[in-house]
Specification:
Elements: E1 19-21, E2 32-36, H1 40-54, H2 59-64, E3 77-79, E4 86-88, H3 93-100, H4 103-106, E5 113-117, E6 122-124, E7 129-138, E8 146-147, E9 151-158, E10 165-171, H5 173-184, E11 191-195, E12 198-201, E13 213-217, H6 222-236
Antiparallel strand pairs: 1-9, 2-8, 2-11, 3-4, 4-7, 5-7, 6-7, 9-10, 10-13, 11-12
């Protein structure tokens, strides 16, 4: 089943029933940024314009794309519904990434919009396979409302009962205020948590988060989670 990223308050009893993993190795700094997103409905007209643009003849770009110019993006991207812009099979990722860098495609999008990929391919049950997800974020020219600098601590956490690997974020005092406001402004919308430009988590906000602690649950293993946390910690310094 396609994993579901979610965001929630970490209740006080959670600490007593889970193990927090420490990692003292050194990692290169990682850039953690929280982005607000476009819904698929908000972005649909821009997306349709990009599809039309790709069907316009362009000899130079046809050569660059090795014959893939003019292709309909809908042939390679499965609709994401209310969750994301769409899903891309691993064998098509490079092709789609190349198409999305074309100037005639970028010109169809709002100036602040950027499309980010999930950091790895995840199982999507309805599609019976592993796919990358695409999210459209408000990024270019906009100062992020929350970054790794707003964290006080980040830890790897392993639930001893389910063996689920989570990443636990503890906000600073100012970060807690920013996060509460950001989540309050995005009820029933998705917030993307990006590490070094790749989507680590994309939870849908159910209610404002005011407690300052947030749990990220994904399909990463313990080694991957430690590397992510190590990089975030290095970026906080």
């Amino acid at each position: 089943m396609r994993y579901t990223f979610f965001i929630l308050f970490v209740l006080s009893f959670l600490s007593s029933c889970s193990n927090k993993e420490e990692d003292t190795r050194k990692y290169p700094p990682a850039d953690l940024v929280f982005y607000e997103t476009y819904t698929q409905q908000e972005f649909q007209d821009y997306w349709n314009a990009a599809i039309v643009a790709l069907n316009e003849p362009d000899t130079s770009q046809a050569i660059k794309l090795n014959g893939f110019s003019g292709i309909d993006l809908r042939q390679l991207i499965q609709p994401g519904g209310d969750i994301c812009l769409g899903y891309v099979a691993p064998e098509n990722q490079h092709r789609i990434a190349e198409l999305l860098t074309l100037e005639k495609v970028r010109n169809c999008f709002p100036k602040d919009a950027d499309i980010l990929w999930t950091w790895n391919a995840e199982e999507v049950y309805d599609l019976k396979g592993n796919y990358y997800s695409l999210y459209v974020v408000h990024k270019n020219g906009i100062k992020p409302r929350l970054t790794g600098k707003d964290l006080e601590e980040v830890e790897v956490e392993e639930d001893p009962n389910t063996l689920q690997i989570n990443i636990l974020l503890t906000m600073s005092e100012k970060g807690t205020e920013k996060w509460a406001k950001m989540t309050a402004d995005n009820i029933k919308r998705t917030i993307v948590m990006s590490v070094n430009g790749s989507v680590l988590s994309a939870p849908q906000v159910i209610e404002p988060i005011t407690g300052g602690e947030t749990q990220i649950s994904g399909n990463f293993n313990l080694k991957e989670a430690k590397e992510i946390v190590g990089g975030i910690k290095a970026g906080m310094r």
